[in-house]
Amino acid sequence: MSYNLLKGKKGIIFGALDERSIAWKTAERVHEEGGEFVLTNAPIAMRMGTINQLAEKTGSQIIPADATSVEDLENLVEKSMEILGGKLDFVLHSIGMSINVRKGRHYTDQKYDWTQKGTDVSAMSFHKVMQTLYKADAMNEWGSIVALTYMAAQRVFPDYNDMADNKAYLESIARSFGYFFGKDKKVRVNTISQSPTPTTAGSGVKGFDGFFSYADEMSPLGNATALECADYTITLFSDLTKMVTLQNLFHDGGFSNMGVSAKIMEAFMKE
Ligand SMILES: NC(=O)c1ccc[n+]([C@@H]2O[C@H](COP(=O)([O-])OP(=O)(O)OC[C@H]3O[C@@H](n4cnc5c(N)ncnc54)[C@H](O)[C@@H]3O)[C@@H](O)[C@H]2O)c1
What we know:
Layout: E1 10-14, H1 22-32, E2 36-40, H2 43-48, H3 51-58, E3 61-62, H4 70-84, E4 88-93, H5 99-102, H6 112-135, E5 139-149, H7 163-185, E6 188-194, H8 200-203, H9 208-218, H10 226-237, E7 248-251, H11 262-268
Parallel strand pairs: 1-2, 1-4, 2-3, 4-5, 5-6, 6-7
Helix pairs in contact: 1-3, 1-10, 4-6, 6-7
Bound molecules: nicotinamide-adenine-dinucleotide (NAD).
């Protein structure tokens, strides 16, 4: 169902790799709600993914940008404003990557070059995106910036590895930059803390199936899907949530406030 919530709004969507990506679903929903956007991803992802199909389907242009490169981001922001014909109303940061996770390197045995690269891609890139937007004065008043995160920023999920630290950093950047964006430009900045979701990044985490099922059985509503995450993001881009900022918003079927559920208890009851 669509409500025309984003009619006349323009933005940039980072991170659509394939149709499982949260950013992909969000792009489709933004399009259905009347929003226009530029799609972007790392140059290497262009070769691996199928972003062209999404661009065609949503009538969008693609501008490649490595989110760790300020030069690429400056080019992206400038060109996006040209293409869309003005300042932006929304930006989605849906980017994450850890080489330690990918290569199965244990948290207690990190290769720090990889750790640094993962931090740059997964967290500092959010600062770089916002600093570029801020300096170019690229956001309209009452615009909305959203990044995706995971609850391992607050609680221990051992196999989430160094991504847990990256997400804690990302969430802190949302608050710190969100202050300046709010005060100086009336732009809001939030993170959405999403349930485990079977995407390329998600299923790359060791034991993903285990903590997907665990969260699903623990949460009163079950896990939130990528499409449901897209729906939630739409509300944050819309004018219905103008006063929500500096928040880390759990979108997880209630998981974050659970202690134990009957289903989980069952597995441990002796008779
Ligand atoms: N899947 C989950 O279980 C889950 C749960 C909570 C939060 N998240 C977060 O959601 C976001 C999106 O991930 P997803 O699950 O849709 O997986 P995904 O693999 O589809 O998306 C990750 C994206 O990051 C992009 N990326 C990597 N390096 C980049 C770079 N240098 N520059 C620009 N883009 C780069 C990839 O190309 C890819 O499009 C991530 O921040 C992820 O941590 C995912």
